[in-house]
Amino acid sequence: MSLRGELRLNESLARHTSWRVGGPADRFYVPEDVAALSEFLASLAADEPLTFIGLGSNLLVRDGGVRGSVVSLARLPEELQHSGDLNLTVSAGVACAKVARFAADAGLTGAEFLAGIPGTMGGALAMNAGAWGGETWAIVDWVETLDRHGRVQRRGRDDFRIGYRSVRGPRDEWFLRAGLVLAPDRQGQARARIRELLAQRAASQPMGQPSCGSVFRNPPGDHAARLIEACGLKGFSVGRARVSDKHANFIINTGAATAADIEALIEHVQEAVRLQTGVELIAEVRIIGEAAAPTSEEDRL
């Protein structure tokens, strides 16, 4: 097989995550198009571990890295089309904020919330990402997926079980494209709404610092940030990872944090909130990979 795209060995995944932490991938593949990706997947052994990533937001890669092959969709050719009166077709690698702006420019409303999601549509589809009361799958009509054999499948909403920040569907399939159904922006307010939401985000969230966005799901009838702040955890640190002073549901890398620092801080917050309030916070962030091996006899004790 003549591999089309870029294949790197022992690639540091800290370069590909918004937290800027993480160990190496055994193999890191950046396909040049979907056909090249299909060929690559078809060439893999059936037992090859396989991980897909987009922009690396909402992702914590442990310091020991990821075994097998990691596929980045971030550089696939973008598709973003106004494909009907109220319909958009978007590829998985398109940034959510770009979809929001495109929809508004097309005279459509319902996608403005995507401007607040710091990732790609593939990641938003995988977790039913949401912001400001909107959720991804509320505007999805159909999706195309790619299975680990390189075959493209077209699927409808009924093929998936959709919940709050949760999507369950066919195993070993990854999102390639989606068809979105929106509403006409009769009042011409979509662009203004996006500007309003982005201003609200800048005022309330730690911008310009390495983070993953919201770390925890909001529990029913409450907000994770309120609970974390009520437990006195704003500014609490483990190593170089810290609960943001600006928004308690954000953990920031203050410089040279390790994935182990961040994961330990996540667990500390969960334990403190559970003990003080009885609420079990569920992590929204996806944690993958292996812990780093001990580096000294002291570490092993």
Verbal overview:
By secondary structure, the chain is an alpha+beta fold. It has 7 helices and 20 strands. A 5-stranded antiparallel sheet has the order 6-7-15-11-12. It has a 4-stranded mixed sheet with strand order 1-2-5-3. It has a 3-stranded antiparallel sheet with strand order 17-18-19. A hairpin with a 4-residue loop joins strand 6 (80-82) and strand 7 (87-91). The termini are far apart.
Spatial strand sequence of the major β-sheet:
6-7-15-11-12
Q: Poorly predicted ranges (pLDDT <50, ≥5 residues)?
A: none
Helix run count? 7
Rg from C-alpha positions?
20 Å
Please provide the count of β strands: 20
Encode the helix/strand succession as letters.
Answer: EEHEEEEEHEHEEEEEEEEHHEEEHEH
Q: In terms of structural class, how would the helical and strand content be classed?
A: alpha+beta
Helix percentage:
10-25%
Report how far apart the termini are: 47 Å
Which oligomeric state applies?
single chain
Quick check: average pLDDT? 93
Topology:
Layout: E1 5-12, E2 24-31, H1 34-43, E3 50-53, E4 59-61, E5 66-72, E6 80-82, E7 87-91, H2 96-105, E8 108-109, H3 121-127, E9 130-131, E10 134-135, E11 140-147, E12 152-156, E13 161-163, E14 166-168, E15 173-181, E16 183-184, H4 190-204, H5 224-230, E17 237-238, E18 241-243, E19 251-253, H6 259-277, E20 286-288, H7 297-300
Parallel strand pairs: 2-5, 3-5, 4-20
Antiparallel strand pairs: 1-2, 6-7, 7-15, 8-16, 9-10, 11-12, 11-15, 13-14, 17-18, 18-19
